[in-house]
């Protein structure tokens, strides 16, 4: 009986995110003119999956008590790369996919190297590397363009068996291949531990550097997967600063909605994935209620503001005023 | 450092090496610029650069105070844009609105700063998150206000005069304004209770609180000042370009942080001097101007900005090693 209570407490954030998403999606579908058809689900899934990849990337870094403000730019860079590399014969396209994912991982690993071995603050480091990645993206695609292997793109964004969205299956595969092994590995536990109490983790001899480095590198991989899917959806590559910053911003919103603590050490990428899907659904809610699309940025900003402000309820539990200052 | 064998002037011995390096870099850049283009070292061109630097200087003043506290303000871009758009909007309301355009713009920026300050100081949300969120909300407000297009309202003559006019012949007004704000910042940071509190909080907010400083009020005030300064720079920039536009603020966030960091202010808070920030602002402006003279595309500029920040931080901004 006890065990269950602990398990429940550990997964509370994820469960709340799932509940928010289920509620929001029900309202969304109930008011959607087309109702619950596989096309509506597919469109919603495709939009949500992009953000879910970036949110997963953000989670990996946030659990180490860091932040990655370059995830959106890694996505933009890999989008531009994919629009140049994932073309030609199936073999070339396959190698292109690997190259794009490797580039994403490399970007993440660079962030990790600078933050961990250069001992710099993650915020400013990733703002700066984000500018570098965006510059590289602009070098690759000064103007929007390029193309992508269309058979592959259609397969990844279509429906499996005419019903289930393929993008959701791809997302589940990435979660199963990246997040699950990482969070159960020694390095993954070390990443969690360094996020909640770095000193204690160090004293216990955990490999915190390796754990944090892996977290940053895998974050790059996830953001790269996001960039790849962005290319599959749009068929082009575009170095758009606005969309890069927007994805970074929304990834933080998704992480917060997904019950991941911004102070590190708590949370799950699965929660963040549901946070991302919920955030997208809330954002799209305006359309089914016939609001002007102009209100969407304000609405999304307000969701983020409210979500982060809810964290302040923890202050009510503070007994000693000195605990305000960590 | 204290080597009695080499006599050094007192001001050099006391100076932060980062500030000295920044000034040295300025000289090097001037040299490179003059080799590259003969028109670079003329008074006219340099005064033009000073005018451009003034906008960045005003923003960097606010950014520096926030960084001294150990926080960061990512709401600069839309605080600027909101200041500019609201200033121009007030100007469209008639003579009274026109007269109050600049104060109204600043007031809007201060409102954003107030939200940031309340979130950071009282709700204890990480500053980066609050300012990112308030930036998004402000952007949303402005998108709704303008309908997604560039607003039609033009800048007032007063805004244009402040940004491009010359009260003292030869010296742009914008530079004069930066000089006034800079003097206030130097005096405020060095001599006032507020300034001492800012440095204290940056070093240890706990200790400052225990010493009886109203740390939450000071932090909130600092964010209000930063928001107001960003908006003020926005109204000036609108005067310079004679109207406000959607993405006018996007190109200022990174340079402002770069200028402060290049000037030797510790990104961890609690350490830095305004003279360094002045050097940083001039350095960043000269760097940008040389890059544009060399016709380097935007991509190259982004990469160089990023690299410069990281290299400078690796030199000065490293956190202590684990134990």
From TrEMBL, chain A:
Bilayer-crossing residues are 12-30, 50-67, 74-91, 97-116, 123-140, 160-180, 213-233, 245-263, 270-289, 295-316
Q: Does the keyword Manganese apply?
A: no
Subcellular location, record wording: Cell membrane
Q: Which CDD domains match?
A: TM_PBP1_transp_AraH_like (cd06579)
Q: Which InterPro entries match?
A: ABC_transp_permease (IPR001851)
Q: Which UniProt keywords apply?
A: Cell membrane, Membrane, Transmembrane, Transmembrane helix
GO function terms (MF aspect): transmembrane transporter activity
One Gene Ontology cellular component? plasma membrane
Q: What protein name does the entry list? A: ABC transporter permease
